[in-house]
Amino acid sequence: MIVAMRKMYAAVRASQTDRLLTTLRDLGVVHLQPVHAERARPDEATATAVQRLARAEQVLSSIVPGGDRPDLSPLEAADRVLELYGRASELNTRLAALTREVDQLALWGDVRLDHLADLERTGLTVRFYRVEPDAVADVPGDCVEQVGRAGAHAIVAAAYRQTPVPQELPESIQPLHLPQRDRPTLRAEAQKIHQQQTADAAEMARLAHLRRAIADEHARRSEDARFITAERGGLADEALYALQGWVPADVAPTLAVKLAQTGLDAGLDFVEPAADESPPTLIRYPRWARPIEAMFNILGTTPGYREYDLSPFFMIALPLFAAMLIGDAGYGAIFTAIGLLAYGRIRKAAGAPAAQLAVVFGTVTLAWGLITGNVFGVSPEQMINAGGLWAAIGHPFKAIAFLWDADP
């Protein structure tokens, strides 16, 4: 049932602003509506802190705690988690680039550029060429040696001390330019990245000990953000503070008394919603229809204030429709057993309505399978024809299965 709402206007002395907001929050019966929506937002520091804590909590959700618990505040720990997480992405990108570069330099093997530079300082110059097979003997140099192959071509290294380095070469001999970095240097850099990743992973495991503290701080800061948003959504001057919101119609008559009991001297006024207003929707499900709330929560479906509440219809139709689709008491029994055995886990993970809905789906499927005469594809007639114990089961089964047609 969609609950009727009343628009509330409240005003207190400016000195009682925090008490009013705290009391309304504790009562939990008012949906505040900001007077100026553009002002109803938390300050930048609070908003960014909430975002950082939420992101850090999400990152740590997949990290197994290890090592010693660090001595950091929740916000400091969150910032460190985000720093390590961002660096992990950068390190992975750099490592992938280094791996590609190492593969591209396979032609050069483990040649070190610093070794070639040392040789050149002693007066020995080394050059590399891509040479057609029948032109290897034509490569000039004091010492010429084939050091590899690249497809159909030979890779030749030539050393020059007495012989000058040739400036012009035939088309069959193509010079190979040295890479900017050699593979041993790239591998050494990759090794440093691996070491950094290992150290960062160990630190992240230590920070995972603070996940609960970060979650608690996130909840506290989120509450602060909502409080600040609510406060800024009202009207304030040096003497008074006023706000507006929506309350259930059956709560409105007692709200002034509840505020007075806390020592608040508040002025309250309640009015019917205007035709052009859209009050928030509060649904109070009938007790027997509460399980369907889980389905609506999954779908994110909420009827408008002036629409019709279809929850009772869906509570009846949806389990029955699922039972008709499955149409087997055996599977219904399995679903019911799973729902009952996992009730506590489902309730903890998704709430009581979800756990109840799982049992309802299984139970209705079981009942439909019995009255339509189908248990794992076996009919009452097949059980009776099997004789023995099956026949003893088949006769009462046939009596229950009043929708089963032995001769369709």
How many E strands?
9
Poorly predicted runs:
none
Give the fraction of residues assigned to helices.
40-55%
* Strand coverage percent: 5-15%
Query: Describe the biggest sheet?
Result: 5 strands, antiparallel
The average pLDDT score comes to 90
Number of domains: 4
Number of helices: 14
Ends: how far apart? 43 Å
Describe the global form: flat
Element-level helix/strand string:
EHEHHHEEEEHHEEHEHHHHHHH
Q: Which class do the helix and strand fractions yield?
A: alpha+beta
The radius of gyration over CA amounts to: 38 Å
Explain this structure to me?
Strand 4 and strand 5 form a beta hairpin. Helix 3 runs antiparallel to helix 5 (183-207), helix 3 (74-104) crosses helix 6 (211-232) and helix 10 (329-341) packs antiparallel against helix 12. The protein contains 14 helices and nine strands. It has helices at 17-27, 44-60, 74-104, 113-121, 183-207, 211-232, 252-261, 292-299, 311-326, 329-341, 343-350, 352-371, 380-386, 388-400; strands at residues 5-13, 31-32, 125-131, 143-150, 153-160, 173-176, 235-236, 240-248, 267-271. Strands 1, 2, 7, 8 and 9 form a five-stranded antiparallel β-sheet that branches. Strands 4-5-3-6 form a four-stranded antiparallel β-sheet. The radius of gyration is 38 Å and the shape is flat. The chain is of the alpha+beta class and 408 residues long.
